[in-house]
Amino acid sequence: MSAIKPGAMGSKANPNVVPPEFTNSMAEAMENAFNDLLTNDGMKAFTVTNNSQESRDRRRLFVAIALGMVRYLSNNSDGFKILDSLNNPTGEKIVISTDPSPL
């Protein structure tokens, strides 16, 4: 089973490389969606191929939102119900698997 990767800031030691903690994460998907919306509205998109202070300042919000979402869903997984085709509870549980230490 794949774990959900909320994303993290990673080291700021190399401003030219996107940290692996951010790559292929929920936070990166949010950043990409934000850039798409900017582009669709004819606005200037952000550079997403580096780890500059500007990129880190923007990504901090996406990482915080992704971490908050994953933590909330993990702590409230009883709110998810698995039903059969007749809408009867099956008794199965949803377990949200995330990176062991996303920070």
Overall helicity: 25-40%
- Average pLDDT confidence is 91
Q: Tally the beta strands.
A: 0
Low-confidence stretches: none
Domain unit count = 1
**Individual helix count:** 2
Instruction: Describe the sheet with the most strands.
Output: none
CA-CA gap between termini:
21 Å
Structural class: mainly alpha
In terms of DSSP E residues, the strand content is: under 5%
Overall 3D form: elongated
Topology pattern, helix = H, strand = E: HH
Which value, in Å, is the CA radius of gyration?
Answer: 17 Å
Question: Could you please describe the fold and organization of this structure?
Answer:
By secondary structure, this protein is mostly helical. It has one domain. Helix content is 37%, strand content 0%. The protein has helices at residues 26-40, 53-75. The two termini are 21 Å apart. The model has no long low-confidence stretch (mean pLDDT 91).
Q: How is this fold's topology laid out?
A:
Layout: H1 26-40, H2 53-75
Helix pairs in contact: 1-2
Tags for this entry?
2 helices, 37% helix, mainly alpha, elongated
